[in-house]
Amino acid sequence: MLLNSAFRAALLLASSLPSAFGMAIPYNIAGLKSRALSTSPASVQTFESTNNAYPRVTALSDGTLLLGYAHNDGTTRALDILQSTDGGASFKPYGSVASRTDNADLDNIFLLEVGSTSPPTVLAAYRNHDKDSSGVYTYFRITVSKSTDGGKTWAFAGQATEFTAASTGGWGVWEPFMRIGSDGKVQLDFSKELAANNQQTYRTLSSNQGSSWSSPVNLLTHASNVNLRDGMVGIAKVTDQQDGRAALVIVFETTTRGDGIFNIAYAVSYDDGASYSSAGVVYMPSGTRQAGAPQIANKGTNGVAVVFMTDEGLSDQNWPTVAQIKTVTSDELRGGKLTWSSPQLVSSGSTYSHWPGVLSFSGKILSVYDQGGAIVAKYLSY
């Protein structure tokens, strides 16, 4: 049964509102064979059946899963929460993080449990921008809301970053990703536009569960003298099998082949995300075909899995509208390098699919994405 906007309103506790140093990156997937991929769908029940997008999922310490996504019906923009109490076999409506009916851009939700409370304390980071009546951006924010009851009700926590559009010439911030650093602080990475063809990854830190944030630092996922549009970051913690060092692998979309033509890259950090190595390629489509919006999760003991959207293999070409979800894997990080499998298809059917998220928990990998305005969840077995 679908739940309407009135029910959502009752649930809502108002919230306020790595380095590519040149234009050529070697691409090599030799030596790693793709294993057969099977998918098993989960049942997803959303507040509304259509106009849903950009899902992200997280596992909580009480055994539940939360799935956040954006809903836009043309009048109301909302960030809703679904809950699973059966290990991810099904998701049902649970709460609402934020909702706006004014000239707003509310999207890009990301969820993270913080602390060790019962019920769990959860942060939600998201873009929360203002527009004027003609649709021109006037103010940019990455807002953070907080739930102390496992994701059911939410309250404003803080602004990870905010500024007027006039102060940057209209260039904004997008796509937050959060993790807990080795020092216990919340790390929030986001994409910041510097020009139409130039976007970098920035990081800000919080030591008080999102109430206040440090000044954002440019991680220079590409060199400052090169224009590339890096974005949509995802991060997984691994161990380098060559020397046993703890490492982070960051994946992101970038424009190595030229403005507006996207591929997937990765870089490695050995200092808990403060800096990253020069980039390598995760997936490079042929010709002018596109690949973007990657997310990454741990796979097995030392491997990782990346999900992303691409138009390669489709007859039409109208990025990012025309896209489907694919995945690649790597068995281990060794000497700062990952070797990737060939891509395999995750989404099915003729309806285009977009904006995937991925979660590794309890030995399983769960991919979520939107397809035709509905939220889809599938378990991936490689």
TrEMBL record:
Species this chain originates from: Pestalotiopsis fici (strain W106-1 / CGMCC3.15140)
PANTHER family, per database record: BNR/ASP-BOX REPEAT DOMAIN PROTEIN (AFU_ORTHOLOGUE AFUA_7G06430)-RELATED, BNR_ASP-BOX REPEAT DOMAIN PROTEIN (AFU_ORTHOLOGUE AFUA_7G06430)-RELATED
Protein name according to UniProt: Sialidase domain-containing protein
Signal peptide: 1-22
Protein keywords: Signal
Stored Gene3D superfamilies: 2.120.10.10
Keyword Signal annotated: yes
SUPFAM superfamilies: Sialidases (SSF50939)
